[in-house]
């Protein structure tokens, strides 16, 4: 695994679509090996942030530093696309090796063995030749985690990885995630299950189009911070223009200071 030697810095980051901001003025730093949850109301900008970290959404303003695309493994929100793709389980999982194998590279016996080992690690031995469309939702999510294993990236981005997944599968995938962290990887996950966040994630970012609180999970997930997240989120205008101080719907620049429960040390 390529070690990450750099801290991830988000500097006054504003993200959006066609100049309409969805996340405003986010500044924080994430140290290598951190296990970070991103939470907030629906539409708070969590997936938008993950897409920007993954490098598929260019910031409207501000900067992301310390992240390179080849250092990232990204699990987007569960999509029907994976399931409908006419490919078998091993073939889908093997796409996790594309950086190594490349478009013209040869898929060797060693690659095949690594695919099968990754499938074994997620409890899918024996499923190698099955079509993706024959898998249950939980089995498909296990296969997507097997692909992440093969990507072998120092930074793992997970967007609602346990949505619509049963308890047993969630427990197995959480164990894998903890294993990644103990190997020194940074894991950043969008989650809705707050009990799960409290139990498994030492650090949390509470987002409501702008950062509400960031730091130690117990200090971030307070009733007061949730109330503030709701109150900040509700007045936002979906069609707000560019992010300007005082612009209607754009959100004033830092109307409240971000609650920083701790500086971002693991
Ligand atoms: N491709 C897009 N084009 C235009 N607007 C978008 C696009 N994707 C997201 N948005 C808008 O950006 C805002 C933030 O969306 P985002 O998906 O990041 O929220 P979220 O916090 O992940 O929500 P949820 O918890 O419901 O998944 C929303 O208002 C959404 O409508």
Automatic annotation (TrEMBL):
Record domain ABC transporter: where: 8-234
Any one Pfam family match given in the protein's UniProt record, by short name: ABC_tran
Keyword flag Aminoacyl-tRNA synthetase: no
Protein family (similarity comment): Belongs to the ABC transporter superfamily.
InterPro entries: AAA+_ATPase, ABC_transporter-like_ATP-bd, ABC_transporter-like_CS, Metal_Ion_Import_ABC, P-loop_NTPase
One GO molecular-function entry: ATP binding
UniProt superkingdom: Bacteria
Name listed for the protein in its UniProt record: Metal ABC transporter ATP-binding protein
Biased amino acid composition, Low complexity: 243-252
Gene3D superfamilies: P-loop containing nucleotide triphosphate hydrolases
Sequence segments annotated as region (Disordered): 241-266
Annotated keywords: ATP-binding, Cell membrane, Membrane, Nucleotide-binding, Transport
UniProt source species: Hydrogenophaga bisanensis
């Amino acid at each position: 695994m390529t070690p990450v030697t750099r801290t991830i810095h988000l500097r006054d980051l504003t993200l959006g679509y066609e100049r309409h901001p969805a996340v405003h003025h986010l500044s924080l730093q994430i140290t290598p090996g951190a296990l970070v949850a991103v939470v907030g109301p629906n539409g708070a900008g969590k997936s938008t942030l993950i897409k920007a970290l993954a490098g598929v959404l260019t910031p409207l303003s501000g900067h992301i530093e310390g992240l390179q695309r080849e250092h990232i493994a990204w699990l987007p929100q569960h999509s029907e696309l994976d399931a409908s793709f006419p490919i078998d389980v091993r073939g889908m999982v093997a796409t996790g090796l594309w950086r190594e194998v490349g478009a013209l590279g040869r898929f060797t016996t060693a690659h095949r063995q690594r695919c099968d080992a990754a499938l074994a690690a997620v409890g899918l031995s024996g499923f190698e030749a099955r079509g993706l469309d024959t898998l249950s939702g939980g089995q498909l999510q296990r296969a997507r985690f097997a692909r992440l294993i093969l990507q072998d990236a120092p930074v793992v981005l997970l967007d609602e990885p346990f949505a619509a997944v049963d308890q047993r599968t969630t427990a197995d995938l959480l164990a894998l995630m903890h294993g990644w962290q103990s190997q020194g990887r940074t894991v950043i996950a969008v989650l809705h299950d707050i009990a799960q966040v409290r139990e498994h994630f030492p650090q949390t970012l509470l987002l409501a189009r702008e950062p509400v609180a960031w730091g130690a999970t117990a200090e971030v997930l307070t009733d007061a911070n949730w109330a503030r997240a709701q109150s900040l989120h509700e007045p936002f205008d979906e069609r707000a223009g560019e992010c300007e101080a005082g612009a209607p719907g754009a959100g004033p620049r830092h109307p409240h200071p971000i609650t920083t429960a701790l500086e971002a040390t693991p």
